[in-house]
Amino acid sequence: MTLDALTTPRVAFLGPIGSYTSMAARQAFGERSELVPVPAREIARQVQLGRARGGCDFGVMAAANIQYGPIEGTFAALYSTRDVQIVGELFLPIEFSLLSATARLEDIHTVMSHEAALAQCATRLVRLEQRLGRPLTRHPATSTSAAVTQATMLPGVAALGSTEAARRTGARVLLEQMQDHRENVTCFWILGAGSRPAPARRNKTVFLVELAAGVDSMHRLLGLFAGHGIEITMFKEQVVPSKSRAARWSKAYFIECAGHVTDPALNAVRRALRRPDWEVLGGRRGRVVGSYPAFAVETLRFGSSSVRDGSDATSNVGSEAAREVHS
Predict the structure, then answer these.
(1) By mean pLDDT, which of 10-14, 37-41, 246-250, 276-280 is the weakest?
(2) Residues 188, 86 share a domain
């Protein structure tokens, strides 16, 4: 596929439009991109299919929030979809508003949103209950924008979502700044297939490793990274179905490091993890899930103007990913 064919990249995201994932996708790929709303569990699959088979060129998934932590479904999708990799990242300030078709705050009895959003606003919701003098029912939804859509059709129900979702659905903004932390940020991963992006000035690499059982396996794995002077920036345990009849479950580990896999130290680790005879792997092979340019977090700006629908976005994270992967 040529870069010209990707002047309108097809990007899978957790919809509908107005979700924070859609805002991250617009920020990354710009207004000319074609956003395809799909359930979260289908995003990696759409990238795996590719445009030629009716899928998408890229996908955008939330990886972790500064307060909520890792988004489990994203790691599960990457574990089970071998030929999809991380080709970029984007950090987005997240600000929640309480939205509803109901005019009076006093008439609200239920708050809906994605479970991660409910967690990011937990303290503010407790304070709201104290203000109202009664409890509020929390109800999880598949996405923040889906919650806003539902809330506009249900009397007494409000949703935690973006002002962009409010504009699209006609919901009233009852309260703003509902997130517990003012500098609330979510990291989104851009998923692609094909070639790995070339090194940039600053990079990250993510490995996926399954260890054999043993008291020193983890110690030796971490020693491999430490011995090469590699900075680990994220370490995520993932419970997965066991490949052995002796146990029902096993554990895999996502390890995010500073640097590109072509750097000598990281390349040495990559070669070691590809050796199935290394006993800590128990016959398995570690693999690189992504090696990509790191987002410049120092450029983040907080406040109501920092979160927008992407119509005036200047980020070219997605454009760079398209150029690198398909050049």
Answers:
(1) 246-250
(2) yes
- Amino acid sitting at position 272: A
- Residue 253: in which H helix or E strand, if any? strand 249-258
**CA angle, residues 297, 264, 215, in degrees to nearest 5:** 85
**What CATH number does residue 286 fall under?**
3.30.70.260
Q: Half-sphere exposure of residue 19, counting CA atoms within 13 Å on the CB side?
A: 30
pLDDT digits (tens, 9 = 90+) for 50-59: 998 999 999 9
Q: How many whole angstroms separate alpha carbon 22 and alpha carbon 96?
A: 15
Torsion of CA 191, 217, 221, 193, to 10 degrees: -20
Which residues, including other chains, have CB under 8 Å from residue 249's CB and lie 6 or more apart? 239, 240, 241, 242
What is the domain range of residue 320?
Answer: 4-94+184-196+294-326
DSSP 231: P
Judgement on whether residues 8 and 139 belong to the same structural domain of the protein: no
What Cα–Cα distance (Å) separates residue 95 from each residue in 61, 247, 326? 18, 43, 34
Instruction: Give the distance from CA 85 to its chain's centroid.
Output: 13
Residue-by-residue DSSP string for 133-163: TS--EEEE-S-HHHHHHHHTTSTTEEEEE-H
Q: What are the tens digits of pLDDT across the range 144-168?
A: 999 999 999 999 999 999 999 999 9
